[in-house]
Write a structure and sequence with these properties.
21 helices; binds alpha-L-fucopyranose; 34 strands; alpha+beta; 9-stranded antiparallel sheet
């Protein structure tokens, strides 16, 4: 083991990271830290009693859950590419005739028979996708540290650093943890305020198939993923831990690393697998892990910490939100308990930024996309395999990415979409006899595209259209033409699939997706419940959106005009949206909704959010109908469902209702509904990260919207956010917006234009500013073009769908790229 003398550099390095951490005095925290350092700090006065209390750190590749146990510290480890099974696709080569049969039964309105055939023949054939698995655990034992005082553990999301501190026998101990973005290692620093006091034993463990060895002072765990559902494990991985100590002794063998009487001990830990991409697992995991470790080991803790911080903050500091005074005197778990009944709006601000922290920490340009649990999973087979559910959950993960200025972090999602456009060609061809590509409601690291779980949930072929919406939105936010060019063929492939599979339904001759489902929802309940359908509203909206985006893309790229014309003709034949007997937006082609249905999925409201097909200004009747549907559905549900509803109420311009849902979400977890765990993770329950991301997006949507022909400033401000400020939110057209408000009125506004062009602003108050001209005519900025929606079919008199538009004012500003425009509003 290498020993180094306590050099001046090391002293400075320790001081550097000390400024960011707790000074180990519960009750005195506020004095100990500067206010801005408190603002984004989750803190607790006891160790994590379970996984949902542990604190997540991550760099997109390595994830860690820090428990903060005193005698035996546990850091549960993840690596983003440790999955069960190996390269495969779960295609069903016998499906085609049964799909035709189900389709025909649906046309004959024999719904129960259609479901029966679907259940019997179109379920998964022994492979519902592979599970994302934990890597193992890093344990650090501190024998004797039983009776400690002044215990504290925290996670500072402004710095992406976790800390544990306590006093034992008059010695103050401190542990600091981070997963370096720049050097791809997990770092732990153990210090004490008296010399020679750091003694511990370090161990690696994994419930996966594994072997522990020691070489040259390295503790090495070699493991492999699990065999699962007829797929042999192909993932191999290595975890390597190595220490660097100041003073004292250390030795390593295959039973662990022992550190004796050191002043400081650093643990460098790297993890790597053999995964190259979904069809290639030929890399050398040990060599890879060693390379990261060797490179990082040459650097001092402060160097690594500084580079990590710089990288992280380049993302994190792009958006500043202030929703009120900080009251961090209570631990975070207590604040969660009190949020719904007390007055602590700053916790909503922390929750907003925590969502951004989680996205930065779980989705990096070279990583896998964030799965159902981001990258944090402590099990061999997490809930729903912790994979990618693409009928809402994966998409929700990426809702905050553009608007909260984390656009680069979409890269892994876009890569996955590109890969699905390859693997999904086989399912389109073999199962549906169609060109293009498609997948069903789940996928995994191997990019499977067949049916999983069962036809009742899984026979949904429209995820390609939803995923492609993210590609187009990325273009709208960034104006990146090259990106659009690169992904145009992917979007086109999805559209080709629908050109080939759309069916004429018998009653109106509309073109519909069949068979399909309105995700996971039934329109005939009971023991023989029926979900399979033709022409579900969400499908109609998704295909409408996909075709419209392609038509617009072909104009932007000046290409493929004939194809665009074909799409225009088909688009006109898609079903219009329909308003049913209860004044609701119909979920299915027939008027089958129930007023007492509180199903968690609100798929037919896709058109309201994240889609942009329902506008209070352009389709007030649909707007009212969507609102009615949401009222019937109720508020309390699973975590992600409540998060979706925050976005929906924001789009319905009702900030108070959106805020009510934020309160429902930031509440302790109950069995009946979602909520928030002590570590701020969203609960389905169990933990599912989509609700975190969805809520972050919802808060952004309450403050800024740009999908409906203009940039809407504070469209859904709740009464409780009387004053505050936001800066760095992005609007379509590349506008970066800053707003300061007091008494619910904007008093300062700033617009930074990255792309130039007309900036049209909508505001609920008159903006008395000379340089802002009252808007006239259409917005000439192409990123704000809106698509014409077919006239809805109404089954109740239009008068019952009247909508009293709130008064708002529209202004235009001509902008130059690279310029900031600041306005003081009287
Ligand atoms: C969908 C949802 C469930 C859960 C699962 C991962 O199936 O209906 O509630 O979120 O995804």
């Amino acid at each position: 083991m290498i020993k180094i003398n306590m050099s001046k550099g090391l002293l400075i390095s320790m001081l550097f990271c000390l400024t960011s951490v707790v000074l180990a005095q519960p009750g005195k925290f506020q004095q100990a830290l500067k206010p801005n350092e408190q603002r984004y700090r989750l803190w607790y006065n006891k160790p994590a009693a379970n996984w949902n209390e542990a604190l997540p750190i991550g760099n997109g590749h390595i994830g860690g859950m820090v428990f903060g146990n005193v005698v035996q510290e546990r850091i549960q480890l993840n690596e983003g590419t440790i999955w069960g099974g190996g390269p495969n696709n779960n295609l069903d080569s016998a499906a085609a005739p049964h799909i035709t049969e189900v389709r025909s039964l649906l046309t004959q309105k024999k719904y129960a028979e259609a479901q029966k055939v679907a259940n019997k023949y179109l379920g998964p054939k022994g492979n519902s996708g592979m599970p994302y698995q934990l890597a193992g655990n890093l344990y650090i034992q501190f024998p004797g540290h039983e009776e400690v005082t002044r215990y504290s553990r925290d996670l500072d999301i402004a710095k992406a650093l976790a800390t544990v501190s306590y006093t034992y026998k008059n010695v103050e101990y401190k542990r600091e943890y981070f997963t370096s973005f720049t050097d791809n290692v997990l770092l732990v620093r153990l210090t004490a305020n008296k010399p020679r006091m750091v003694s511990c034993q370090i161990n690696l463990q994994s419930p996966l198939k594994q072997r522990l060895t020691a070489t040259n002072n390295d503790l090495i765990l070699a493991g492999s993923g699990s065999d699962h559902e007829n797929q042999q494990s192909k993932i191999r991985f290595n975890i390597i831990a190595r220490t660097k100590i100041v003073g004292g002794d250390s030795n390593t063998d295959s039973s662990g690393i022992r550190v004796q009487n050191a002043d400081t001990a650093l643990i460098y830990l790297s993890i790597a697998t053999n995964f190259v991409n979904y069809k290639d697992v030929s890399a050398q995991p040990y060599q890879r892990a060693l390379k990261f470790l060797d490179a990082a080991y040459k650097k001092r803790f402060d160097e690594l910490c500084r580079a990590h911080l710089k990288y992280y903050q380049a993302y994190f500091n792009r958006v500043h939100l202030n929703l009120g005074t900080l009251n961090n005197s209570q631990p975070t778990d207590v604040r969660i308990q009190q949020f719904a009944t007390g007055r602590d709006p700053q916790l909503a601000e922390l929750y907003f930024q925590f969502g951004r922290y989680l996205l930065i920490s779980s989705s990096q340009p070279s990583s896998q996309p964030a799965n159902l649990q981001g990258i944090w999973n402590g099990e061999l087979k997490g809930p729903w395999d912790s994979k990618y559910t693409v009928n809402i959950n994966t998409e929700m993960n990426y809702w905050p990415s553009e608007v909260t200025q984390l656009t680069e972090l979409n890269a892994p999602l876009f890569n996955m979409i590109g890969e699905l456009a390859e693997t999904g060609k086989s399912s389109a061809k073999v199962m549906y006899g169609a060109r293009g590509w498609m997948l069903h409601h789940n996928t995994d690291i191997w990019r499977v595209t067949g049916v999983v779980d069962g036809a009742f949930w899984g026979l949904w072929p429209t995820a390609n259209a939803w995923l492609c919406q993210h590609l187009w939105e990325h273009y709208l936010f960034t104006g990146d033409r090259k990106f659009l060019q690169q992904y145009y063929p992917v979007m086109k492939g999805a559209a080709q699939y629908f050109i080939d599979v759309l069916q004429k339904e018998p009653d109106h001759g509309w073109l519909v997706v069949s068979p399909s489902v309105s995700p996971e929802h039934e329109y005939i309940g009971g023991q023989n419940a029926v979900s399979v359908t033709a022409g579900a509203t969400m499908d109609n909206q998704l295909v409408f959106g996909l075709f419209s985006n392609l038509i617009n893309a072909s104009t932007v790229l000046n290409t493929d005009q004939t194809f665009a014309d074909t799409l225009k003709t088909l688009r006109d034949k898609l079903p219009p949206m329909q308003v049913g007997q209860y004044g609701q937006l119909q979920e299915w082609l027939d008027d089958l909704d129930s007023k007492t249905d509180n199903h968690r999925h609100v798929s037919h409201l896709y058109g309201l959010f994240p889609g942009s097909q329902i506008s209070p200004f352009r389709q007030p009747q649909l707007f009212t109908a969507a609102r009615n549907s949401l009222i019937y559905r109720g508020d309390v549900s699973t975590g992600w469902s409540m998060a979706w509803k925050i976005n929906l109420w924001a789009r319905l311009l009702d900030g108070n209702h959106a805020y009510k849902l934020i309160k429902d979400q930031i509440s302790p977890v109950s069995k009946q509904s979602g909520g928030t765990y002590p570590n701020l993770f969203d609960a389905h329950p169990p933990f599912q990260i989509d609700g975190n991301f969805g809520c972050t997006s919802g808060i952004a949507e309450m403050l800024l919207q740009s999908h409906d022909g203009a940039i809407y400033l504070l469209p859904a401000l709740p009464d409780e956010w009387k004053q505050g400020s936001i800066s760095g939110l992005m609007a379509r057209g590349g506008f970066k917006i800053g707003i300061q408000w007091r008494n619910h009125r904007i008093y300062k506004l700033s617009v930074y234009s990255t792309l130039g062009g007309q900036c049209r602003l909508r505001s609920n108050q008159m903006l008395n500013v000379k340089t802002l001209k009252t808007a006239r005519g259409n917005n000439t900025n192409p990123y704000f073009k809106t698509d014409r929606i077919s006239k809805p079919v109404l089954k109740i008199p239009a008068t019952q769908l009247a909508y009293n538009q709130p008064e708002s004012w529209l202004y235009d500003l001509n902008t130059q790229p690279g310029k900031t425009y600041t306005f003081l509003v009287k």
